Amino acid sequence: MAYLDYPSPISHPNSPRDLPVWEHATASLRAGVPVALLCVVRSEGSSPGRQGFKLSLTATETVGSIGGGIMEHKLVELMRTRLQRGPHAPEIRRQVHRAHSPTDRSGMICSGEQEILLLPLLPSDLAAAEACGQCLRHTGSAAWEASAGTRLRLLPAPTDTHYHPGPDWHYVERLGFRDQLTIVGGGHVALALSRVMSTLDFGLTVLDDRPELPTQLRNHYAHHRRTVPYEQLAHEVPTGPHQYVVIMTVGYRTDAVAVRQLLHHPVRYLGLMGSTAKIAHLLQELRAAGLDEAALNRIHAPIGLPIHSRTPEEIAISVAAELIRVRNGG
């Protein structure tokens, strides 16, 4: 069977959350408008802004968010005042969300704390900001960094996000989608799930063994849509701690082929859609064939939170909720 890859639009509807921030910063720099980038570099507890949350701001506009509320308002106003005064050095500002904290009170009482990079952008930062936007626009993978001693800089090789605090602080953030979801089976539920997951910052790939499948052709939410034999899934699906896989093929037999291919695949999440009866029968058949019980116990099946979902859209919501729970450590 031929391998087909349906290209997605260049300006993809499922773009990383940060793309509008970088586009605003780039447009402002091109126009000669003073602009700054605010980015959460560390968070803990019930902080409203998590690591990687960011916004760009000018004297009249903001795009993005570092958590909202009075904290965000105060820091935006601070940076607008600084932009009026001219260039100044980057700064890391600690914000504590407790009313009785002796220092660094944010004005919020949700508990937790966060550290925020206040980075005024200079005309010399245009090329790096532009490259960040290009990377995200084309769903590439790279990283950007800033530190006490350097300006904004693009790192061409992807690396995990990390922050080193202190006087010589250093922050590196991966660009693009950290988490990747592969949907095996391109039918109606896959289309509905792709639509939901496109809002949740996952890179999306949909695989099916049927060429010219109508629901696959209509799926413009996925970044990659490929026609592949299910017997080759182990070679098609990436491995790693940020890889999530859901199996929802057209029937029982193809589900079994997919499970056999991916059962020992080291991924963060492996789920199988189906009724309780179908899942029980399939697992019994796999046990009888001698498959490893510990590996079978890795399978989330039936997938999705138990909300009595019936339609493809309801099933998609339940599966998305379970993926969020796994990603967030639930």
Automatic annotation (TrEMBL):
<dbReference type="InterPro" id="IPR052698">
    <property type="entry name" value="MoCofactor_Util/Proc"/>
</dbReference>
<feature type="domain" description="XdhC- CoxI">
    <location>
        <begin position="29"/>
        <end position="86"/>
    </location>
</feature>
<feature type="domain" description="XdhC Rossmann">
    <location>
        <begin position="181"/>
        <end position="323"/>
    </location>
</feature>
<dbReference type="InterPro" id="IPR027051">
    <property type="entry name" value="XdhC_Rossmann_dom"/>
</dbReference>
<dbReference type="InterPro" id="IPR003777">
    <property type="entry name" value="XdhC_CoxI"/>
</dbReference>
<dbReference type="Pfam" id="PF13478">
    <property type="entry name" value="XdhC_C"/>
</dbReference>
<protein>
    <submittedName>
        <fullName>XdhC family protein</fullName>
    </submittedName>
</protein>
<dbReference type="Pfam" id="PF02625">
    <property type="entry name" value="XdhC_CoxI"/>
</dbReference>
